[in-house]
Amino acid sequence: MTAYRKQPRNSNLKMATRIYKHLEQEGPKTTAQIKDWLNNDFRPKSEGNASNKFKFTVTSEQISGLMRTSPLFKCIGDDNVIGENGKVYVAKVYQIVPVKTVVNKMLDVDGQLKKHRLRKRLPSVIREEIKSRGLLL
What we know:
With 137 residues, this protein is an alpha+beta fold. Helix content is 39%, strand content 15%. The chain has 5 helices and 3 strands, in the order αβααββαα. The chain has helices at residues 11-26, 31-41, 60-69, 99-106, 124-132; strands spanning 29-30, 73-82, 88-96. A hairpin with a 5-residue loop joins strand 2 (73-82) and strand 3 (88-96). The radius of gyration is 17 Å and the shape is elongated. The model is unreliable at 1-5 (pLDDT under 50).
């Protein structure tokens, strides 16, 4: 781990899984709404009720970058949001892509996972779908 990096390396994978499950229940949300939920209302089960926050807070840029690059999410539009300083800015609205669709796109013509994938680590919702199909990671 390098000195400038404050979050653990797999935190984006965990964050993608948490956001996916949240959007699955709540429906489409803006990056600002997701950031507020993660930083204020999210309670990890492993930490019990004593803690309602991440070890590190997340920024809307982090969330936006994750959701823009992840195959689990797609942008469905824009929404005007009033920031803390009172200025209006545009926030993207994201919704989930079904996990089955994401895994189908990852398979080759033989129905197996490609040998040389760009991304070696995957969010747990994708890993669970791959295991339920009996494929090897």
